[in-house]
Amino acid sequence: SNLETLIQRLPKAELHLHIEGSLEPQLMWDLAQKHHVELPFSDVDAIKSAYQFDNLQSFLDLYYQGADVLRDEDDFFQLMWAYLCKCHEQNVLHAEIMFDPQTHTERGVSYDVFMPGFIKAIEKARDELGISVYLILSFLRHLSEESAIETLEKARPYYEHIKAVGLDSSELGNPPSKFERVFAQAKALGFKLVAHAGEEGPPEYIWEALHLLKVDRIDHGVRSIEDPELMAYLKQHQVPLTVCPLSNLKLCVIDQMSEHNILQLMNDGLRVTVNADDPSYFGGYLNENFMALAEHVNMQASDLITLVQNGFKASFLPEKTKQDWL
Ligand code: HPA
Ligand code: ZN
């Protein structure tokens, strides 16, 4: 269709992508064989069929289990390189990519294993594919703030490779207020700030992310719609929301794609972007997320163009570089 051609053709930015969530079943299988890790699956197809979720937690349980096959530097290189090749295929020219250090350090895999793997793939993609990448160090919110502080400190040798810090994992019961001190430390170090809020959690968590953590963007934020005052604030300050349509469907945040509120958020004047979140687990990379919207909500070509432009506007690229894409 025309919209499909347009989506494929437009240069795009990806702002909400967990690199561990881009681990494809085939690579998971191959790495499990390589390291003699036992997976509770009989073959690659059995991994794929297990990807049916009731909520965020049921997904996270599989996501952390899957990440356990990542053991040495080359595994992390392969993971990042596979994702960046996908970016090239889909005409994604800038990606701001989250990684979860604690998912690895908690299993005895250190920064000196995953960071060199990531950095080598990122440099290769910059040189050979012309893709720019920023890394976002994301804290696991089901763990303590002390653990987050230690995670930020251990990253010190790699600060020059990290653009921002974020907050992900189990939202309900782990409000942003739990991480006020570590976000203040990260801000003092010069990092940009993002946090998942208002995916499963209430609008109050979005207010906390804004006022207590002082984030530059909200990841997801689809529950903003429940709070008119919050909507007004997000509009006035043009705080970006990194919305992930296929994720919302797979994690039962919505029952059907046709019920997604993204057009309403956009038509109310918010700076909304479209993103893939965990593409291997949710059934699509960035273009498939745009396509799902084109098929199931009443999107015009002009809406798609606005959403794609918002991706660059909401990025952490320098203003001059952004202008080149708008
Ligand atoms: N939400 C919270 N935590 C996550 C997600 C998500 O969508 N993906 C990976 N970790
Ligand atoms: Zn996410």
TrEMBL record:
Q: Which UniProt keywords apply?
A: Hydrolase, Metal-binding, Nucleotide metabolism, Zinc
InterPro entries, per the entry: A_deaminase_dom, ADE, Ado/ade_deaminase, Metal_Hydrolase
Similarity comment: family membership:
Belongs to the metallo-dependent hydrolases superfamily. Adenosine and AMP deaminases family. Adenine deaminase type 2 subfamily.
Q: Which HAMAP family match?
A: Adenine_deaminase
The organism named in the record is Brumicola blandensis
Pfam families named in the record: A_deaminase
A molecular-function term among this protein's GO annotations: zinc ion binding
Domain called Adenosine deaminase: residue spans: 11-326
What is this protein's function per UniProt? Catalyzes the hydrolytic deamination of adenine to hypoxanthine. Plays an important role in the purine salvage pathway and in nitrogen catabolism.
Q: Which NCBIfam families match?
A: aden_deam, PRK09358.1-6
The protein's name in its UniProt record: Adenine deaminase
Give one GO biological process term.
Answer: nucleotide metabolic process
GO terms for CC? cytosol
Q: Which residue positions are annotated as catalytic? A: E199 (proton donor)
Positions that bind Zn(2+): H16, H18, H196, D277
